[in-house]
Task: structure prediction
Amino acid sequence: MARFGMALDTTKCVGCMDCVVACKTENQVPEGFNRDWIAYQTDGLYPTLHMEIRSERCNHCDQPPCVECCPTGASHVEDFGKIVLVTENECIGCKACVASCPYEARFINPKGYADKCTFCNHRVEQGLDPACVSVCPTHCMTFGDLDDPQSAVSRQLAARRHHALKPDAGTEPRIFYLT
Amino acid sequence: MTELVLTRHNAMIDPLLHAWGWEIPVYLFLGGLIGGTMMITGYILLKGRHRENSCVCSVLPLVGLALLSVGMLALFLDLEHKLYVWRLYTTFQFSSPMSWGAWILLLVYPALAVAWLVRLPAFLRVGQVGRLADALAESPRAIWAIGYVNLALGGMLGIYTGVLLSSLGSRPFWNSALLGVLFLLSGLSAAAAFVHMIAWDRTERELLARADNIFISLELVTLMLFLTGLLTSGASHQAAAALVLGGPFTAVFWVGVVGLGLVIPLVLQSLAVTHRTLHSAIVPVMVIAGSLVLRFVFVYAGQYSHWL
Result:
């Protein structure tokens, strides 16, 4: 069974927010909320500066704290691609998962349940890429099976330097940033 | 130097996480207090001292039932998807302290109710309930069982309120197993103070005041060990400790929790139990208020803390 993940090339990302708009449109994300977003990180002091632009979202961690703390099992790891999902009509809106996520990738949908990136599982099941990946004008995102060494994402990760976000939190995230 | 700009601005998440408001600290405080009252009631029952005219056996379980209902109401008010609350009771999630808590709370109600039956007031001792209460009061085995169940469930309830936070490892301020012990001790201390405040029997008041001194002392030690744990851990945990060591929660922590909630009551109560000053209601009120402020500081500061 696949274990989906993503590689994002920070040397290509220009922070155009097409991925953000695509996600909102595809998933009808409520106004005022985002399932994915852009981070602009600047390190150093002028004139010695380094900037990294990243498209961020739920990391679909291998050790997801949001799933472990869920009192009803609404937050779960789907068999299909090991995607972390929320079953809306099982969620009581206790917000434990919101507090448990080191990436703060979750929010409470105005309808009351916990909401977050689904890796567009409805598209992936049809063999399509997630909406954010499919619209990226610089093709900086690669989505695929991390357990398949021949997948495009696995080959990129094998060939390029990369880092994950907050690895010290120990959740084993599956979104990687190529540098 | 690092500057991070996000385009995200989700409610309750940005700029700083604030998912849990007043409801959760109030619930955690009441949960701890009820856990403490159950342990004290359980201890008195196990010791066979329920025959004495103590408020622990006759009033405390009833107060526990009332406070538990208030606590569960606070918990319910915090839920965002309220109509689905019943989902808690169609499953048991082993890895989720909240699921453990939901089931523990369900057991706490009958345990408190049965403990209350032991010293049921005479005017309620009628019909089948009256016969059951009489039978319980005459059976040492039943008293022992009720005492043991209350002691165990009270301990579980007190510890779980801490574990609820400490299990969320992505919040460095909460990420210490000492939280379970700290909240249990704080609950025990608040419960002892509560009995000290309402008991009509002088011996009982003295006993609980002495016990409270021990609980407060242990709580102070646990609190210092908790801070030591954070300060000797990694950068994220040290930054979390800084929230109460110079950061935005410093004043309320040292004045409200440590000073007014622990040290000053300990000093005053030590003087009172050694008969150098008179007992007063001020000390228990300070202890109980300090216990509530402790929950507020922990819930709010914990949400501020994050992995660097």
Summary: Chain B touches chain A through 49 residues (CB under 8 Å). The mean pLDDT of chain B is 92. Chain B is about 70% helix and 0% strand. Residues 27 and 70 of chain B are 8 Å apart (CA to CA).
